[in-house]
């Protein structure tokens, strides 16, 4: 009880000094809890949506998948006779056929895409009674003929649609127009999908290209009949194994699995960044308690002199840490819920609607936040607490401070050097690996070991690095600069820990910058060397035939190349089989992509009953020029194709592709199974590049879901995509950098308190308030630049090693983004200046006489 009272007294006596550490705990816990609440809320949203849109029992084609569309662009369907048999099953209240397709684009009269901008699908189908589970018509009426359509209210609001507006639906079967006669509102949260409805006959004809077929059958159970019972009755009625029959739960679970995998990626990525913030926060807490212990040396000595044991002193510090952890974690849990709501609002603004009505805070979320916050805080405070317990009563009463353990420092240095050396060796080994998969594991080990090693030897490096930075930067500030240098060197362990917090975040920034820049440079280099086509046309969906025809008829083009991925099973002479498919392209693709071959000529692969394979595949399965491979086309017949070329796989584009001609594909695939183009290429007639580019853009105005790019556009798009990804990562890493800045502020603030008498003496002998504030700001800048120098150097080493592994996958160009690196380094100086504002202000306000009289 005495220990608890002492700890409580000390905690509240130093609450101002604990504040920034509490903020670090708060931010870290908030990020973890916010991630959990956000992902749980999204899962709840989708669970409710899938449950509301699923019938009691659903009958689907056996090959149907909830998260994909067949290669021919038309949804799998079943005959209307299945509906007739299913509705005769015992226990059926009513049965109806449904038509649904996600391989559509809906545009308005100005050819603007009415779909979601967040990647959510556009869904077209027929209006059924089952839709009344999740929607209600709030304006107009359901479609009654081929020229009528109904849209969801969210899409109508986003795109300012109203009754009477004309929409054009683009499907693989063709384009068709209809006017809006109704608007339906979701009863549950719609995460962002755009939905359009037609009458059944129109949906069948325009989406499936035929009549008398449905994509699934929805059955409602009669009163007193369970879904499982109805499922068995339906199976008995339509036959077992011919179709997929699922209860509402099974159908919802299948839909949820695709979303769940995506959500897990988001969840664990964000938790990873939260872990980085926790790691950075550890240094802040260690520094805080180390300095608090040092400032309470005499107090600890008195406690020991009157009978307190080492364990009691140790326990007193750990109790303070526990209080800090509990306080920061409780606030962090609340802040996490607020963060989740903020993310939901942000996603809604971007087009992915998430309602706070579905806000989900599981009981485990606050528990996880509290446990993490408290455990991390107590572990971080353990070393300072242990040092506090080692203070002898006499040494403490003489105000000797915490003991400097030379042996411990030596051991620490040796361990740090060993870990750094082992990490450097691992990075060297990874850089010289023969396979990227093997090298990536070694790279991971090297990153972890060098990071830990640098953290441990930070105090050893502080002396030399700080002196170098000071020689370059602080000499211009005369005596004030020299005093700032000495202050930074006064406690190398403290400087090392403070700089390490900043080092971690900046090391990751530098590493990712190097990797991102190298990927862009490598891909650009590959495009320059390999791509011979003038224009590339592609989108998020396969190119529908009517859009492909518009491309083919564009004036000013020398040739147009079709490119399709075909589902097929390939068997080699040694008996190996895989279902990785083949690529069907026109012979002009050999001009559009300059592929090197290790045997034969690529043009020969586009001959009759011929194909090519990649060099890695050929080596692994002993395939040589002239061998015959068995290719079983899904939905078509089986072919015996001769290997006419072996392409070099030391590339990025189309690595491992197995080419055959469009003519060969048509021979073995029926017309209704031939997929639309995945991508198309076009080359302009000589001297007509600008005119052809403009004409091609004009031809594709009717199809806004596809983009026309020349090589310059394509490179810029690639750069922008990687840049957006990096910016998102930098945004998440900003949390760790914010925590590191708090660490610098806390270290300086406590250092000012520790040097109160010294500051008073300097002021007494003539130092002005301005000079004092400048000294503290320069000290902060030096510490920040020390951390930045270590972090950027370490990160560039990681990035260069990662690029060596990427070179094994064809990304051979190493590019250091010097503007980014230099900008981050300069930015670190401003971070140091910002961190010193409050401590410098407080130091400048000290009363000279009171400061000198401080005990």
Automatic annotation (TrEMBL):
The keyword Plastid does not apply. GO terms for molecular function: transmembrane transporter activity. The keyword Transmembrane applies. One of its GO terms (cellular component) is plasma membrane. Residues 57-80 are annotated as: Disordered. Residues 273-393, 732-847 form the ABC3 transporter permease C-terminal domain. Its main location: membrane. Residues 57-74 have a biased composition (Polar residues). It is a multi-pass membrane protein. It is found in: Cell membrane. The chain crosses the membrane at residues 268-294, 317-343, 363-385, 414-433, 445-478, 499-521, 728-753, 774-796, 816-838. Keywords: Cell membrane, Membrane, Transmembrane, Transmembrane helix. Residues 19-234, 498-696 form the MacB-like periplasmic core domain. InterPro entries: ABC3_permease_C (IPR003838), MacB_PCD (IPR025857), Macrolide_Exporter_MacB (IPR050250). Belongs to the ABC-4 integral membrane protein family. PANTHER family: ABC TRANSPORTER PERMEASE YTRF, MEMBRANE COMPONENT OF TRANSPORTER-RELATED. This is Membrane protein. It comes from Streptomyces olivochromogenes.
């Amino acid at each position: 009880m005495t220990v608890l009272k002492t700890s409580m007294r000390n905690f509240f006596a130093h609450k101002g000094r604990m504040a920034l550490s509490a903020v670090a705990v708060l931010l870290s816990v908030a990020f973890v809890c916010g991630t959990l609440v956000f992902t749980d809320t999204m899962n709840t949203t989708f669970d409710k949506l899938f449950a509301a849109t699923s019938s009691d029992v659903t009958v689907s084609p056996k090959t149907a998948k909830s998260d994909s569309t067949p290669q021919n662009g038309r949804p799998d369907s079943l005959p209307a006779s299945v509906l007739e048999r299913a509705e005769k099953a015992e226990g059926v209240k009513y049965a109806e056929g449904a038509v649904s397709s996600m391989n559509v684009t809906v545009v308005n009269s100005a050819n603007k895409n009415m779909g979601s901008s967040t990647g959510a699908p556009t869904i077209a189908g027929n209006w059924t009674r089952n839709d009344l589970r999740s929607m209600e018509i709030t304006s107009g009426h359901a479609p009654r003929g081929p020229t009528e359509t109904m849209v969801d209210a969210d899409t109508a609001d986003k795109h300012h649609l109203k009754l009477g507006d004309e929409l054009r639906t683009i499907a693989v079967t063709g384009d068709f127009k209809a006017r809006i006669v109704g608007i339906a509102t979701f009863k549950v949260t719609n995460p962002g999908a755009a939905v359009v409805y037609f009458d059944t006959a129109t949906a069948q004809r325009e989406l499936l290209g035929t009549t008398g077929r449905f994509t699934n059958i929805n059955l409602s159970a009669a009163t007193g009949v369970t879904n499982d019972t109805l499922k068995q009755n339906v199976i008995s009625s339509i036959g077992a194994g011919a179709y997929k029959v699922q209860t509402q739960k099974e159908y919802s679970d299948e839909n949820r699995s695709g979303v769940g995998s995506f959500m897990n990626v988001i969840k664990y990525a964000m938790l990873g960044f939260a872990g980085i913030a926790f790691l950075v926060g550890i240094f802040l807490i260690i520094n805080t308690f180390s300095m608090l212990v040092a400032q309470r040396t005499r107090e600890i000595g008195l406690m020991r002199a009157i009978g307190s044991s080492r364990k009691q002193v140790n326990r007193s510090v750990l109790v303070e840490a526990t209080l800090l952890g509990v306080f920061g974690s409780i606030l962090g849990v609340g802040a996490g819920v607020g963060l989740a709501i903020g993310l939901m609002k942000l996603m809604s603004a971007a087009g992915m609607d998430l309602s706070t009505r579905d806000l989900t805070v599981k009981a485990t979320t606050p528990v996880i936040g509290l446990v993490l916050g408290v455990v991390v805080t107590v572990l971080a405070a353990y070393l300072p607490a242990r040092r506090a317990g080692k203070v002898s009563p006499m040494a403490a009463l003489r105000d000797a401070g915490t003991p400097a353990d030379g042996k411990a420092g030596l051991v620490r240095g040796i361990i740090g050097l060993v870990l750094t050396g082992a990490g450097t060796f691992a990075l060297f080994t990874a850089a010289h690996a023969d396979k990227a998969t093997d090298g990536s594991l070694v790279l991971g080990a090297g990153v972890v070991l060098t990071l830990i090693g640098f953290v441990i030897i930070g105090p050893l490096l502080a002396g030399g690095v700080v002196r170098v930075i000071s020689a370059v930067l602080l000499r211009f500030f005369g005596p004030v600069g020299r005093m700032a240098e000495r202050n930074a060197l006064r406690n190398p362990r403290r400087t090392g820990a403070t700089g390490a917090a900043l080092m971690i975040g900046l090391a990751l920034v530098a590493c990712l910058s190097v990797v991102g820049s190298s990927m862009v440079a490598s891909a650009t280099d590959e495009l320059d060397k390999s791509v011979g086509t003038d224009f590339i046309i592609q989108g998020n969906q396969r190119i529908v035939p009517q859009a492909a025809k518009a491309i083919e008829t564009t004036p000013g083009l020398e040739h147009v190349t079709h490119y399709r991925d075909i589902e097929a099973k390939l068997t080699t002479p040694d008996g190996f089989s895989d279902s990785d498919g083949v690529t069907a392209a026109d012979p002009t693709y050999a001009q559009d992509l300059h592929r090197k071959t290790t045997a034969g000529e690529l043009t020969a692969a586009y001959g009759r009953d011929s194909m090519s394979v990649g060099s890695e595949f050929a080596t692994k399965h002993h395939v040589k020029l002239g061998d015959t491979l068995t290719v079983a086309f899904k939905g078509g017949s089986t072919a015996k194709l001769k290997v006419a070329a072996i392409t070099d796989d030391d590339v990025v584009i189309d690595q491992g592709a197995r080419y055959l001609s469009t003519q060969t594909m048509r021979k073995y695939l029926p017309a209704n199974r031939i997929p639309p183009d995945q991508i198309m290429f076009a080359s302009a007639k000589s001297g007509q590049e600008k005119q052809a580019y403009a004409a091609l853009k004009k031809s594709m105005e009717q199809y806004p879901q596809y983009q026309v790019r020349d090589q310059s556009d394509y490179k810029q798009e690639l750069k922008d995509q990687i840049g957006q990804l990096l910016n998102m990562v930098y945004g998440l890493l900003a949390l760790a950098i914010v925590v590191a800045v708090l660490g610098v502020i806390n270290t300086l603030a406590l250092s000012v308190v520790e040097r109160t008498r010294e500051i008073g003496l300097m002021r007494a002998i003539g130092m002005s308030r301005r000079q004092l504030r400048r000294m503290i700001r320069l000290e902060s800048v030096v510490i920040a630049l020390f951390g930045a120098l270590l972090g950027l150097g370490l990160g560039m080493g990681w990035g260069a090693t990662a690029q060596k592994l990427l070179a094994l996958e064809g990304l051979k160009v190493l590019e250091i983004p010097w503007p980014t690196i230099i900008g981050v380094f300069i930015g670190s100086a401003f971070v140091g200046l910002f961190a010193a504002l409050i401590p410098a202000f407080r130091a400048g306000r000290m009363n000279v006489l009171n400061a000198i009289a401080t005990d």
